[in-house]
Amino acid sequence: MNPSRLILVVLASLASCAVASASPSSEDDSTGDDGNVKGVDWTTISEEEDEIGFIQGVVVDLPPVASLESKYQKVEVYSSNHFGRVFVLDDCLQLTERDAPHYNEMFAHVPAFEYLSRFPEEERLKVLVIGGGDGYVVSELLKHPTVEAIDHIELDEGVIEVAKKHLPWKGAWESPKVNLVVGDGAEFVERQSSDSSHDGYNIIIQDASDPFWIGDDGEEVLLPSHVLYTEAHLTRIHELLRKREGVFIMQAETYNIPSNLKAIKR
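The chain above was modelled as a monomer; its predicted structure follows.
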């Protein structure tokens, strides 16, 4: 059996999402095909968590900087005077240019420093990034000269396409250190873990979308990404970490929401 590995957990919020149209400032209160009020050049992207009575919103400019309907979801980028570029998937706020470091820098640098603190003599790190199609985590990893190679697996090519054109860290995929694979993260991990010739990764980062929603009836509704949270998948992740020792970090919801806490315990 491989030696134990440190598993680090990032906690992020899970909320229902919506783009709420702004109220008109003129007498024209008609609404366009896109759901926005005519004559108004802003809207609010809101997140609601009915379970704990929480709501927050970000005001963005209209029209969006980019809008694309991919095979899996609607991909949009907005502009905000305060928050800069605002990245949205299916009306759900993913990140803003101003506060994205709070999440992504922890995701990239904490596992890298943890590994290097244990093995400071290590000069060549191989990293696997599952998800994180906006590219921020990959761009932060490239700041480490010891990172020699990054395999980046993202399901939605549309997310990559929009991020490459409209997000400030879009040059991350141009690095010769980065191998971008458009495909299913769970299937990729399964293939790699069954390949006896694969020498594994020093660090694995899973920046996956939420595994479930809580429906209006209070019942858990599984989302396609739930396969990235199963015991079988996590066992394969463990097998892909190098035998000497590796570090795994994942997005695992928030302990502030009761349903999330139950899922974390599972």
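The CA atoms of residues 31 and 38 lie 6 Å apart.
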